[in-house]
Design brief:
Elements (H helix, E strand, L loop, with lengths): L7 H15 L6 H34 L5 H11 L1 E2 H4 L3 H13 L3 H10 E2 L12 H15 L1
Parallel strand pairs: 1-2
Helix pairs in contact: 1-2, 5-6
Length: 144
């Protein structure tokens, strides 16, 4: 078995075997010392991994566990409908950039990430309510 695959019990067993081999007359002391160094390095690695696992386990155990339903409710509350979201300053600025440049990707990205588009015609960019009021006012004035 290779040293990197050994567990703590295997290391302790091999260390005791090496201790017995050291007393033999034909023992290769340099090779045995090298193997002992490797075994000690592997033992320290196993201890470090165990300490890391314990610390992670303690961290997870100390975390406040929330039910999945509570997390889902919180996410649902974050979502706005299109009418609410199109009145945010962030979306109004993105819409202004769209009007200036003709590139609607920022508006679409914001709407996809932050709003539920129920009732929204697929493929259109929502107009901020402020712009909609201006257009409606101008339209009414043209009709009269």
């Amino acid at each position: 078995m290779e040293i990197k695959e050994m567990k703590m019990e295997d290391i302790e067993q091999r260390m005791s075997e090496i201790k017995n081999l050291m007393t033999a007359e034909d023992a290769d002391i340099d090779a045995l010392n090298s193997e002992v160094d490797s075994l000690i390095e592997r033992r320290d690695q196993i201890k470090a991994e165990a300490a890391e696992k314990r610390a992670l386990h303690e961290k997870v155990a100390s975390m406040d566990a929330k039910p999945i339903e509570e997390i889902k409710e919180k996410e649902e509350r974050k979502m706005m409908d299109v009418k609410e979201y199109r009145n945010t300053q962030e979306y109004i600025n993105a819409f202004a950039n769209y009007v200036k440049t003709g590139d609607d990707s920022e508006c679409r990205a914001l709407m996809t990430e932050n709003a539920v588009s129920e009732g929204q015609v697929v493929g259109t960019v929502a107009i901020p309510e402020m712009v909609e009021r201006i257009i409606n006012t101008a339209w009414k004035m043209m009709k009269s």
